[in-house]
Every structure is written in C-alpha cells, then in structure tokens.
Amino acid sequence: MESPAMVDAVVMFPSPAIGHFISMVELGKLILTFQPSLSIHILIVSAPYSAGSTASYIADVAATTPSISFHRLPTITLPSSTNTHYETLIFEVLRLSNPHVHQALLSISKTHKIKAFIMDFFCFFSLSIASQLNIPGYFFFTSGAGCLAASMYFPTLHQTTTKSFKDMNTFLKLPGLPPISSSNFSSAASDRNNKAYEYFLDMAYCFPKSAGVIVNTFAVLEARALKAISDGLCIPDSTTPPVYCTGPLIATNNQTDGDTECLNWLESQLSQSVIFLCFGSLGLFSMEQLREIASGLERSGQRFLWVVRNPPSDSQSLDISALPEPDLNSLLPDGFLDRTKEKGLVVKSWAPQVAVLNHKSVGGFVTHCGWNSVLEAVSAGVPMVAWPLYAEQKFNRLMLVEEMKIALPMKEDEKGFVTGLEVEKRVNELMQSDSGKSVRERTIAMKNAAKAALSEGGSSRAAMSRLVESWKH
C-alpha cells in the first residue's frame, strides 16, 4: 500500500521578541497567498523576559488561517546569573533551544516535505541544523535593508579595529549608508566584551551560508543600501546571498480590539491636526522624562494623543507585562490633564497603533523608531519625529532622517534625556515648519511607493513570487 503523498511545508522560527514574532507570522500569511497548498509551521520559543503576550494574536491566526500551525518548544530556563542585556538573553534562549528545533524539524518532516526553513536572524544557531537535514535555510531580517547592510559589513568593521565602537567617538563609512557615528550602534553591538557582540558577529558570518535573506522593506525606500548589498560590497570576502524585499509586512487584525476611546476622540479632531506619541512594547520612561514630555506638549499648543506607560521598576526595565496601569495624576505634572483636556488625550498603556496612524486626524508620529512602527507610519503616510530608545533604533533614526528624509530627529543628551523644550521644538517643527512640510511630502511619496511595491507587478510582489517559485524546483 502506498504511503500518502507528503504535503509541502515551510517551517518558520521567529525570535520571541513580540515585533519580530508578528512580522514573521505576517510573512507566513503572505507566502500562503502565493502558494495556498503549502502548510506553514511556526516554532514558538518563550521570551526570557515578559513583554506582553502573543496569545490572542496566535489564537486569531490559528482560527482564521488553518494552513498555519504553531509548535511550542519546551521552555528554556536561564541561570539567574545570566547577563541581563535583553539581546543576550534572547540569543541564549535561542542557542539552548537548538536541540528542540532539531527534534521539531525531524518530527514535521515525517509527514511533510520541508521546502524551506526561515529563521529570524537572531535564530542563526539553527542554520547548521537546516544544513544537516538538507533543508534550504533562509534568514528573515525584521529591520530595514540599511541595518542589514551594516550587519553584513560587521565582520569587516570588526577586522579593521581592535576598539569597541563605544570607545571610538568617530564616524564610520559603510557601503550604501550615510556616515554613521560609532555611538549609533546598539549598546549590545558596541562593546566587544559583551557576549551579544560575539553573537552578532557569529550571525553576520552566517549570512553567506544561507539560501537567502528576506527583508521587511521595499526597494524604493532603501535603494542605496540594497544596491550596495547586491553589488557585493557588504560581504567583500564571501558570497552575498540573494536578498528578497517583501515588505511592508504589517499586522492589521486586532487593531481595534478593546478600548476605542482614542479613535472616538480622533473623530472630533481636524484633519492632520494631531501628533501621536507611542513608544513600542518595551518603550518606558522615568517619571522625570514623562513630565518633560508633558511640559513640552503643553507649551507646543499642538493637539496630541499620547500613550503613557508606568515607569520601569528598578529591578528589571524590560519586565513590562507585570506593570500596573499608570496613575496619570501622580505621574504627570499637577493640573496637566485638566489644562490640556481641550487639546489632548492621554491613554494608558496601549492604543491601536495602525488604526490611529491611518486616521485622517493624525498628522505626525513621535516614535521610538522600532522598524514595525516605522513601516506602519510610512504605509499610513504619517511623518515622524525619531526618538530612539534601545536595540538598533539609533541606527534607524539616522536612516529615517539622513537617508530616507521622512523624519525629524529628537535630540537627547548623553544620558538619553530629552528636555521639554526639545519636545516642544520638534513637535512644532514637524506640524508647522517648512522642514516638517518637506518630510510630510516625502513620507506621502513613500506611502504611494509602498502601495505600488505590494501591488500586481510591484517590486515586493515580484520578490515574493521569485522566492516561492524557487521552492517548486
């Protein structure tokens, strides 16, 4: 008796960081629109810190997209002495998950023919398993092509100096990118003595060994960086893998679940009159910084919608899901809410960001420069004020301001603190000045380019089609 024909499958391994996870699932959904007969299997690793839950998102995807199934890998418990740098924690959990990834791939391959194994770039440890099992291994890069170019060039930079970036105080020239201050690298990658630096370097050495890199961006947004990559300038000593720009990938479901107070409030505001301030799933400020933002907003006289979270507890700045609801009256300056009630709305902890950015009343966005937030703003045609907080966000600010010209920079002091005067100045500049107007026009042009990239005959659709076609042979 013949065994049943095996179903073709793609296995995906996202990083547990919530933004990375959702982007990869959206990539899975996109793959299915090109090849609906595929079965998609997503391996889930628990995050080494608690930063919001993906449970409702997973349940929603499982209910609406039966071709996607989720496989939860056993939880890894790190020793309590482990370095608390959040990138290092993620790398450690993913490294220790490798045996479980191996088991999962063996188990799935009993009933499916695995055409591709797509890993978040943080999961580079698993590329060796894909090679052992003869499965083409791809990286999914959840940041932009500029950041990919810098990551690919990282080994070359490493070889040209013995200093840590944090000790250099200089500008570096990288292929396809504007001059980069050595202070613009993420804190994890800027210190040679940090374990995460070693992991980023190991990851960069894996790019040429992969079957390709899928990037959540689109060709027009980052043309110069993409040309440098395709010309082989970023990996001068080895082969550059194929790069597929398939973005912007944006999650639009669940966007109005829960509190719609802010959407109702926006309905009563004039077109493009409101500046929206929101800082991502890990973006937390001290009480002193929150009060400076409040004074800057009040003095600016602009209409605003501001998402406020509780300041981090001293023990663990990334453990945010355990934070209680903020008490706005005690956090913000005395009388602030009352004095600004005609002009602004402060919401606690969360807002439906995609829905807010796409509302006609929103005319500007103060963002932490997380890449998903950047793409959401570009897709909505909303210009930005760039205020980076962690990870590769300082690098993203450089790209947004100097290269793409779709944001104005928020300037912080050497400790990362931003004054109320700076908040007032940048918000007014974005909403009222000629430089703000120029950034707005450029952002709207990029919104149209993003739409074109995803349309029939567009660059992102063509890249996705090439990728899926390559699995048929």
UniProtKB/TrEMBL annotation:
Q: What's the protein name?
A: Uncharacterized protein
